[in-house]
Design a protein that fits this description.
Blueprint (H helix, E strand, L loop, with lengths): L2 H9 L9 E3 L13 H10 L2 E6 L7 H10 L4 E3 L12 H12 L7 E5 L9 H18 L3 E4 L4 H11 L6 E3 L6 H9 L3 E4 L10 H6 L6 E3 L21 H12 L3 H16 L3
Helix pairs in contact: 4-5, 5-6, 9-10
Amino acid sequence: MPLFFLFHMFANPNYSLQMEFIDSHTHLYLPQFDNDRDEVISRAMDNNVSRMLLPNIDAGTIDDIIKLSGKYPGICYPMTGLHPTSVNSEFEDQLQAVKDSLSQNNFIAIGEIGIDLYWDKTFFREQEKAFREQINIAVREDLPVVIHSRESIDAIIEIIDDENPEGLKGVFHSFTGTAEQAKKIVERGFYIGTGGIMTFKNSGLDSVIKDIDIEKILLETDSPYLAPVPKRGKRNESSYLRHIADKLANIKGLTVKEVAEITTYNCINLFNLE
């Protein structure tokens, strides 16, 4: 167990091994945290967020993720993958960098991958090709996938059904879809990642999340983006995960401790964490 983790366990009287959260999706390596990254991790630990999982964006961020995970082993966990908004007509070079990184490091997942039809549909076919290739890489490497599905859930489900790769598992992160889409995702063995959007007054996610089995839900921040109420509009960080847990507990009629136990187990199970 890393010394940093042990220090926070015993130095913070409020810390309890009985309540552990995992932030299943944070971009802690981005420049938004360059001035206070260590403090951000310290605040997370003080708020019982003991582990933070790092999805990749493109070839330019792989080294940053590896460096941060090396500095905080057992706390920060690296992924590799090509984010759909980084896909263009020359995406093959980016994808090759992802493939090359797999032979050099111990990643916990292929992510963040998927299709984004919100910002720009110009490279939809390229996004589809990159996604198909990466889900098959994940199966070959026996790794879960972390799926970005903004305005594209139905298209992604169709691709997964078409490819039908045996053993594919993962999470649809930052889920904002319908109850029907959530049902399809869970039926295919995937988890639902939920974060700050769930706390927004007009998100409409309460009724959708209410009907999803909590044993298929992961907590995430997607920091530095999408800070939850009451931190909305600020830079998001892993310590704010407690606000998301509070909201989920309220929706499900559970205690925060129960939410912590179940979602942490879900995360450990999906990503094969020690």
